[in-house]
Amino acid sequence: MGKHNLLIYTTIALVLLFLVSRSPNKSQPQETHHRRRLKIRSHFPFSPPSDPHHHHDPPPAFDPLVADIELAREDRQWEHLYYQTHHDSDSDSASESPDSSPEPDHESRPEWEDFADAEDFLNDSERFNVTNRLMLLFPRIDVDPTDGLASKSELTQWSLQQSRREAMHRSQREMKTHDKDGDGFVTFAEYEAPSWVRSADNTSFGYDFGWWKEDHFNASDADGDGRLNITEFNDFLHPADTSNPKLILWLCKEEIRERDRDKDGKVNFEEFFHGIYDLIRNYVEPHDTDEHESDDSNEASAKMLFVLLDKDGDGYLSDVELLPVIEKLHPPEHYYAIQQTNHILHQIHTNADAFEADITSPDGSADGDKDGRLSLAEMIESPYVFYTGVFSEDEDSGDYVVHDEFR
Length: 407
Ligand SMILES: *[C@@H]1O[C@H](CO)[C@@H](O)[C@H](O)[C@H]1NC(C)=O
Ligand SMILES: *[C@@H]1O[C@H](CO)[C@@H](O)[C@H](O)[C@H]1NC(C)=O
Ligand SMILES: *[C@@H]1O[C@H](CO)[C@@H](O)[C@H](O)[C@H]1NC(C)=O
Ligand SMILES: *[C@@H]1O[C@H](CO)[C@@H](O)[C@H](O)[C@H]1NC(C)=O
Ligand SMILES: *[C@@H]1O[C@H](CO)[C@@H](O)[C@H](O)[C@H]1NC(C)=O
Description:
16 helices, binds 2-acetamido-2-deoxy-beta-D-glucopyranose, mainly alpha, two-stranded antiparallel ribbon
């Protein structure tokens, strides 16, 4: 396992620790119903620049209104960081600062002026009425087909749309700082790695990044006009989610470079087995962590896969030979959208089961047939499942927080 995995495990451990320490005091009896607790994200890992081909954005908010609040807050923190780093390094760059009016244009601005008020706003069940929100959102989710049920694929599409929207917002923000002449394109000359990346010691991550290098830039330049428009720039920052074949191949090249411990330019079986294969297996069976039991059969199936991928049979994997599995090594947003949807459905089922067990009222169950399709009524019955990032209920919060571990 590489340092990268170690980092992930460490992060997960920390997150768990954090969650445990924050978990509500269960011994305290509750004053019934949803006591809402505000949990707007207030820490934003600005890791995308340091390693975009391994970076993953936090899960998107289900409700675009919540997303706007979170993004506005994130923007603010980002600007702060931006000014700090740029004032530390060079003082004359103030003129190229991002302008601070990222105004969401698709939905009318709610009644919060400042982000401090945003907390109160979300926490106030009269102003932010989750029932009304879900009623408003449902017709936008139930579109394929419009049949009064939100299917698994509709929910996945919805989640995907939300994460793409958030990603694009971040890319636009990032682009403003690079597009120095403001013509809507970033040229390689305009592009410059953020100073907090440049100053980072690349060996501390176990391999040298190449992300800001010219070949990454060129690969993102789909039409080859020597500059990136916002679409291309967004791809540049999210190569795992691109449909640009040049960029996908670049991702394979990076993967080879990273795994190629003996630096012969190719990946042999050992390098494949201890690195790439683990990722693929995790992708296929996310919960199988039972490594020691089946070491032999593991190696056997790794060998099989290796031989399959090694099309020219030279005993090494090249970048092109990695293409069939690159999506498993760098899962696109769609993968996470499916996970998020499964999680939502799982929560709904769990709630429904608990509800039935407690009250034995069959007609009150959400998605009782568990066919993965939700009616609006079912959604309204478990509204906080859709706002896990923001609220946690006092009851069941142990279940609710699992969400964050996905990423
Ligand atoms: C949110 O609401 C709860 C109860 O309704 C209250 O105890 C809590 O202080 C509120 N939090 C904020 C940040 O307003
Ligand atoms: C939220 O809206 C629904 C439907 O409009 C209404 O029945 C409910 O009372 C509202 N909840 C609150 C807390 O205002
Ligand atoms: C980063 O890696 C490259 C290539 O391995 C190396 O030449 C360069 O000195 C490294 N930079 C730092 C700051 O360590
Ligand atoms: C990137 O493309 C430009 C032309 O647009 C070319 O001059 C440059 O050599 C290319 N760089 C790399 C690393 O391929
Ligand atoms: C950016 O350029 C690509 C072609 O490289 C094109 O498909 C895309 O529509 C352009 N995006 C915008 C926003 O113009």
